[in-house]
Design brief:
The chain has helices spanning about 5-10, 20, 25-40, 45-75, 80-85, 95-100, 145-160, 210-225, 235-255, 260-270, 270-280, 285-290, 300-315, 320-330, 335-340, 355-375, 400-410, 425-440, 455-460, 495-500, 530-555; strands spanning about 110, 115-120, 125-130, 135-140, 165-170, 185-190, 200, 330-335, 345, 385-390, 415-420, 445, 465-475, 480-495, 510-515, 515-520. Strand 10 (about 385-390), helix 17 (about 400-410) and strand 11 form a beta-alpha-beta unit. The longest helix has 29 residues, at about 45-75. The protein contains 21 helices and 16 strands. It folds into three domains: about 5-90, no CATH class; about 100-195 and about 330-545, P-loop containing nucleotide triphosphate hydrolases (Rossmann fold, 3-Layer(aba) Sandwich); about 210-315, no CATH class. The chain has a nine-stranded mixed sheet with strand order 6-9-5-10-11-4-12-15-16, with helices on one face. The chain has about 550 residues and is an alpha/beta fold.
Length: about 550
């Protein structure tokens, strides 16, 4: 064998990483250190001095190489990295880094913050385009993890530039709608602020409507108001309460009463007496179908059912604010607004979400019903995509048929983002089976922070696994020096559960999009050059609009 071939074979046997193994890396470091030290003492170096410094550096490199050769031949060591010398520092390996930060598919990347913006990678935004893809998503966050700023990133670009989609959102803190409230295509519904818009629950009703059409709409209202809390165990009570409420509403709406009036009449009168009166006064087949079974009935079960009815509607009864916002306001929002390109924000104070939960459920149930019907056979490329943002979704209780809506809405250019803090919240609101269906339908999941171990474990499993090298050493002597190395591989999670708890305090967000796992940088609009510029321009316009509005009020009062 020729000497050249022998040398090549020996070089090929040098293990990774060759630069570290051979000690070459130490030569320029040592040389530079020696020269810098001499100069720092105020002395110069002659040519001989430089040669001597180079010789010392090369000697150090040769010594490191000799040590590594000994470790390779005698101890069996095969991995020579900086980390192998600092194995107690718990530094992530290169494989771990690659596994926990996989590449983002090119179709989700853009240099402009268009569409539904979910994060950043380098100088590019990670986004989903509403014009080409709709999605059902879950946004998991904890207080202070950047939920609002993440949502705002999409809203800023949409309202300031493209108007690419319509928004229907719950806005507990008023942060999402505050800077856009002056825009003509933004409607804000409030149950307590008379300067905002109201909502017409009976927007669909016409006096000549058939019983079949009437029943379809009233059932949605009853299902939204009477929660199915307790699941199958309490089904007898909430199912009959819904039936009673549907029958009473069918009787009273034909009398020309508005929604708050109906709720007040039912809440302030004996329900069984109302049922007997309805059956006497009307020939409606719908009323008789819903109420005949309860005529003349008494007992604890009937009392429990009627209590279920009055409890469910109590928030609407004898309330001047409800009368104004749901019947008397001159500016009423309906689901038709979505067809006209108007965005709708539901302004409910954070501390009153559970109090007004029946209305919130009803609002979304009617929105879903309208959109499924209106876009059944009429979806065209000219229709504007719609983005639902259900902030604090588990606090509303179960929105009727949300699981079935999620399974069909993507084909109708409708996207839904459900915001929660933990998987257990969804299970408490919808039951384990429906919560699993919602999670399965949510093909986009954005994790900014987690609230408990169950949620962290769930997302950790979703990240998948990778193969990690495992190094074991055997030591001997008083100094416990290693005298043997062994190597193996083990499968580990790409992200461990504890890493999800740390997301809140880091600048990272974890995304799952159609089965693709990725870890990206959170988008904070106030730190982003493009988004912050758009937001500042919008703030100036908003301040000018507010000033004009206040001046108009002053002029009216003079």
């Amino acid at each position: 064998m020729k000497l050249k071939d022998t040398i090549r074979i020996l070089i090929d046997k040098i293990p990774d990483n060759r630069i570290i193994f051979t000690g070459i890396w130490s030569i320029p470091v040592s040389f530079g250190t020696i020269v810098a030290m001499v100069h720092s003492w105020g002395h110069g170096l002659t040519i001989c001095g430089y040669l001597l410094a180079a010789l010392c550096a090369m000697t150090g490199g040769a010594l490191i190489t000799a040590i590594h050769i000994y470790q390779y031949l005698v101890w069996g060591k095969r991995k020579f990295t900086f980390r192998s010398a600092l194995h107690n520092a718990e530094l992530p390996s290169r494989r771990k880094q690659r596994a926990s930060h996989p590449e983002v598919p090119e179709k989700y990347l853009s240099h402009c913050p268009t569409g539904y913006v979910l994060g950043r990678v380098g100088n590019q935004y990670v986004r989903i385009l509403p014009s080409t893809d709709s999605f059902c998503g879950l946004l998991c966050s904890t207080p202070g993890s950047g939920k609002s700023v993440t949502i705002m990133a999409s809203l800023i670009e949409n309202f300031c530039l493209t108007r690419a989609f319509t928004v229907v959102a719950t806005d507990p803190k008023g942060e999402l709608s505050e800077k856009f409230s002056d825009l003509p295509n933004v409607k804000i519904i409030s149950l307590t602020d008379r300067e905002q818009h109201g909502y017409n629950i009976f927007y669909w009703y016409e006096p000549g409507m058939s019983d079949e059409e009437l029943e379809k709409h009233l059932k949605v209202i009853a299902e939204a108001l009477v929660s199915d809390a307790g699941g199958k165990k309490n089904e007898y009570f909430w199912a009959n309460a819904r039936k009673m409420l549907t029958g009473l509403m069918a009787w009273m709406i034909r009398q020309g009463k508005n929604f708050p009036e109906i709720m007040t009449d039912i809440s302030t009168h004996n329900v069984m007496a109302l049922i007997e009166q309805a059956l006497e006064e009307t020939d409606s087949k719908l009323v008789k179908k819903m109420l005949s079974a309860y005529s003349g009935k008494t007992g604890e079960d009937i009392e429990s059912i009627t209590t279920e009815v009055t409890t469910a509607i109590d928030v609407f009864a004898a309330s001047s604010s409800m009368d104004w916002s749901l019947a008397e306001s001159p500016r009423m929002v309906t689901p038709y607004d979505t067809a006209w390109g108007n965005s709708i924000f539901l302004s409910i104070e954070q501390e009153r979400i559970e109090e007004f939960a029946p209305f919130i459920r009803l609002f979304y149930a009617q929105m879903f019903q309208y959109l499924l019907e209106s876009r059944e056979n009429n979806v065209t490329s000219s229709q504007t995509p719609i983005w639902f943002v259900l902030e604090e979704a588990p606090l509303y209780g179960a929105i009727p048929h949300l699981d079935s809506f999620l399974s069909t809405c993507r084909s109708k250019k409708i996207s839904v983002c459900i915001v929660c803090q933990a998987i257990s919240q969804l299970e408490n609101a919808y039951g384990k089976e429906k919560a699993n269906t919602i999670l399965d339908d949510s093909l986009v999941k954005v994790v900014l922070g987690v609230a408990n171990n169950e949620t962290a474990e769930y997302f950790s499993k979703m990240t998948g696994q990778y193969e990690e090298d495992r190094t074991s050493t055997q030591t001997h002597g008083l100094l416990k020096l290693p005298n043997a190395y062994s190597y193996s591989q083990e499968r580990r999670r790409c992200m461990d559960p504890e890493e999800f708890f740390r997301l809140k305090d880091t600048n990272s967000a974890v995304l799952f999009i159609d089965g693709n796992f990725m870890q990206v940088t959170k988008v904070k609009y106030y730190e982003d050059r493009e988004l912050s510029a758009l937001m500042r321009h919008r703030e100036i316009q908003h301040e000018a609009a507010v000033k004009r509005k206040n001046e108009a009020k002053i002029n009216e009062s003079i």
